[in-house]
Amino acid sequence: MNVDKDKQPRRGQWPYPGDSPLVRARRIAHMYRAQLRALNPATGDALDDTAVAFGETWVIEQLVVHQDSDLLPPADAAAYLCVSTDSLRVLRSRGRLTGVSIDGTWHYRFSDLRQLSEKRTRAAS
Fold first, then answer.
1. Is 91 exposed, middle or buried (0-12, 13-18, 19+ CB in 10 A)?
2. Rounded to two decimals, what is the model's pTM?
3. pLDDT band at 103 (very low <50, low <70, confident <90, very high)
4. DSSP letter, residue 71
5. Which of 5, 31, 73, 125 has its CA 20 to 30 A from that of 63?
């Protein structure tokens, strides 16, 4: 046993302590994406197109601009929380998130989503 080789290097402190593993993975993916685009924009565009074709639109960073009173459809609400629409439904059924049914489809107030996200961040840190 080589003691020096068996030691793990000390890991740096993650700059966003409340992030879930999924959010961490997405932040890392965004870092790789930014570097790839800087080195080869055409390849970055091609990979973005492939990711979007598979329904992985989270890959492309988007500025979120909502008023607290805005009602978001399930796909947008799930994307904001970095969860699936199934997980969103579970959060609603367990009373952790309220929704408004509009024409048979649940919508979620942005202020409620933001508060839930903040609670999850505080709980993880």
1. buried
2. 0.60
3. very high
4. E
5. 125
